[in-house]
Each structure stands twice: as C-alpha cells, then as structure tokens.
Amino acid sequence: MSPVSAPEQQLAGFIGKFTPEVAALIRAARRRMRERLPRAVELVYDNYNFFVIGYGPSERPSEAIFSIAAQAKGVSLCFLQGAGLPDPKKVLRGSGRVVRNVRLETAATLDRPEVRALIQAALDRAKTPMNPKGEHRLIIRSVSAKQRPRRKPAPSKEPRRKPEPSELRPRRKPEPSKLRPRRKPATN
Asked: Does the residue 68 lie in any domain?
C-alpha cells in the first residue's frame, strides 16, 4: 500500500470538518467522479462559503468542467459550463449565465440516467476537452483562513417557549406632540 500524499492528507482534513453524513457524501461523490474522470486534474478550494473539488483537463481553473461543492447544508455537483446544456428532465438548478448544479441527496444521484447524460453532454461540449493521455493530479489551490461553519449549528436542547405576558414589554403609545400632523387634501 502506498503512503498517502500530503495533498490527500490535507483534503481528508478539509472533509473532516463536515458532519459524518456530509463527509461521507463528499467522499462517495469524489470516488464516483474519479471513476468517471480518472485523468482529470482535481483542484481543491477550502474557501469561506464552500468547500470545492473542481475537475478539469489542466491546472487552469477556467478549464474546469465540473465541481463538487459542499457546505453545511449539503453537496451539489456543479456544471461549470452548464448554462447551455440540454436538460429535458429539468434536473439542473440555477439561473446564472454560466453555471448550473444538481443537488446530491446521495452519491447515487450521479448514477441516475438523466445526470449521467448531463455529465456526458458537459464533457462533449467542454471548451477544453479532457486529455485522454492526461495524468490525475490533486492540487490544493486555495485555503481561506476564515470560513463559514462546515456543520449546521446544533439545535437548542430546549424548545422555544412563548413568553408570558408579564415578560413582554408594554407597548408605548407615542405622545400626541410627536405624531406627524395629517396632510390636508389639496383644494383647487
């Protein structure tokens, strides 16, 4: 068994910030994408809003075709050149000029026929096609010092209760002198 590379260790640390359920989904989605794109270059970004693994033919982010984007609320597969993709089943989300995405409830979403068709269409239409002789590389591109929490806040143990009337502040009526005078209708 070969030793784990430094980028792989760093990637495992990024994924470890998520809840076990979201982390497992990220790992499973990555495994499926690597099976489909064995020669893709993986570009990793641990940014403020999202943790992202991009897939493309080179180190250039502008050539990336897909990305797995994760946040505390869940994981999506982004089609980075997806605005013009044919989507007869209407599974793509988004309305921007370039990117579309599919929410990944489970990694099996990637195996659905309509998602597989979208992945193939994105590969066929990519501005820079995948290199059939390329080599897989994992590149950590960006790590933000400040980040949104990667886990949802734990729910409060006590249910919210309705305040007692005695705990409410009484409403104060404004003094008449502080009220604005009403406008008189214009007469012609």
From this structure: yes
